[in-house]
Amino acid sequence: MKEFLWGGATASYQCEGGFQEGNRVPSNWDRYLHENGLENGDVACDHYHRYEEDIRMMKEGGQNSYRFSIAWPRIISNRKGDVNEEGVAFYNRLIDTCLSYEIVPMVTIFHWDLPQYLEDESGWLNRKTCEAYTHYAKVCFERFGDRVKLWTTFNEPRYYTFSGYLIGNYPPGHQNLQETVTASYYMMLASAMTVKAYREGSYDGKIGIVHSFSPVYGVDMTVKTQIAMRYAENFYNNWILDVAAMGQIPGDLLDKLSDCCDLSMMLPEDLELMQRHTVDFIGLNYYARVMIKPYETGETTLIVNNKGSKEKGTSQTIVKDWFEQVRPKESRYTEWDTEIFPRGLYEGIRRCWKKYHLPIYITENGIGLYEDGAEEKIDDRERIEFMNQHINAVLNAKEEGCDVRGFYVWSPFDLYSWKNGTEKRYGLVAVDYENGLARKPKKSYEWYKEVIESKGNSIRREPYEEVSYGFTIN
Ligand code: BG6
Question: How far apart are the C-alpha atoms of 186 and 123, rounded to whole Å?
């Protein structure tokens, strides 16, 4: 059996900076953040120039894989599809650096930075973006496929479309259910088109998708709750994972959506294409589960806390006529309202393995904290505890026979956290933004190294008792 991958994950916009270098064209995030006067990733942690140091530190920290994304605006210059050789050269250097340190690259083709020239033509609301995406992906396969053997089409299409088109806190900043459904559909279609292109090219590697995984739990075992759980599973998980892994949009989801949305963009030939071109593996980004109860009252409300402790406790999700999220009082939460619930990862992996029976990588897991990058050695024991509990969950699932092949911490070094800016820190290595972006390993960096070197044996193990809560109707 191949070696388990222990790595770190990043995304181009969140770490690279160099936003006007190497002939990179503007992205949707550049435009949106600049126009709204928000903290941006123009410089981020300057990975564009410091990737060698960052990858070397990953290697010295025991890591054997690096999950990163390619910036579409660095690779394809215009609507015609012209390739920017400077962008290709940058990723060639980055990939070669990984290989020189025996670090396996896992590449995300799209982690949310869309060229602005496509956003100007309605971005993911326009079917033509699927073709543009497939062309871009093929260029990546052709140029990097000799060395990259693990690809994922999209990072978190669900989180991206909900944030950009329903909640409205990411570009393009809309709040429109029809648009959410259209954009989601086109992203999943583009994913299948790209899986098809990958297979047709006979590349020597595997291709998957990365999902923002929120295993659904119910407040009780009543039938009403079980039905609400099914709606919630469709809302959070099934319309990505069922489509990517089984080639099917859940019928009851289509039925429900057809009451309120125009689904005429879903052509029979698309559905056939989706059915035939499913992924080789599943990437799960796990931050928290979601506990729900049946819908009671109120309009659809989706509030995300992007302000941390200033707005702690304000997050809320109600989907009218479907379900309401409940925040258990006895649980612990981060300053940004994310519930800390490691067991959800264990249970989620088991459900996923049982349902899809495809290899699983935990492509992101980590905790955002307030930290002072100027400190010489950050004592991030809270992160260490968080990681111990989550890796324990992964190992428990693995020991029960689930085919988990890797774990990637978000993130190997501090980076820009979308609407939360740089004050929300995730890294195992601190970036001192006030002092020339100096890199300083935190305690968790050494701790993770020990975990990897011991092949997980240094993890404090906690077995789980038999599951005693809810179930999902599939
Ligand atoms: C995932 C994304 O949703 O969560 C990352 O793939 C993101 O890009 C990470 O940074 C943490 O979320 P946030 O909003 O706290 O940065």
Answer: 10
| Ligand 1, CB within 6 Å, residue ranges | 11, 14, 155-156, 159, 212, 285, 364, 368, 410, 417-418, 420, 424
Q: Which of 16, 119, 233, 364 is catalytic?
A: 364
Model confidence, pTM: 0.97
Q: Are 360 and 432 in contact (CB under 8 A)?
A: no
Kind and range of the H or E run holding 8: strand 5-9
pLDDT tens digits in sequence order for the chain, 474 residues long: 479 999 999 999 999 999 999 999 999 999 999 999 999 999 999 999 999 999 999 999 999 999 999 999 999 999 999 999 999 999 999 999 999 999 999 999 999 999 999 999 999 999 999 999 999 999 999 999 999 999 999 999 999 999 999 999 999 999 999 999 999 999 999 999 999 999 999 999 999 999 999 999 999 999 999 999 999 999 999 999 999 999 999 999 999 999 999 999 999 999 999 999 999 999 999 999 999 999 999 999 999 999 999 999 999 999 999 999 999 999 999 999 999 999 999 999 999 999 999 999 999 999 999 999 899 999 999 999 999 999 999 999 999 999 999 999 999 999 999 999 999 999 999 999 999 999 999 999 999 999 999 999 999 999 987 665 554 444
CA of 258 to the centre of ligand 1 (A): 31
**For the chain, which domains are there?**
5-214+242-288+333-453 (3.20.20.80)
Please say if 462 is a catalytic residue. Answer: no
